[in-house]
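Interim report to the steering committee. The following record documents the input for NAD(P)H-flavin reductase (128 residues).
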Amino acid sequence: MDERDKRPFSMASTPAEQEFIELHIGASELNLYAMAVMDRILKEREIEVDIPHGEAWLRDDEDRPLILIAGGTGFSYVRSILLSALARNPDRDIAIYWGGREAKHLYDLAELEALSIKHPNLRIEPVG
């Protein structure tokens, strides 16, 4: 991984979280690029980013039910949308379908389950 190498990662932090940017990076021995990114972050403690370029956002229609679908670390931007939606309208009906190759790949499921206790209108559907 050199200075000119750029790869896309989705942000998990919300627009309200101004002091940091949270990324979910699926680093494993099977994903050498993600491992190189993690090694660089751990060694240099900072990275340069070029953001945003995506087309995922929370629309202003707060009254309609919301369905969020994610696979693996694609959950990162879904997390950002979910937390923003709950901040705007805590009573909105929201369903999340999150899939992974194995149950252990749903790495933030405990946080989602805690949110669903606080927000009974939030339905979590692990897919696997």
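The chain has one domain: 32-127. The committee is asked to note this result when reviewing the revised timeline.
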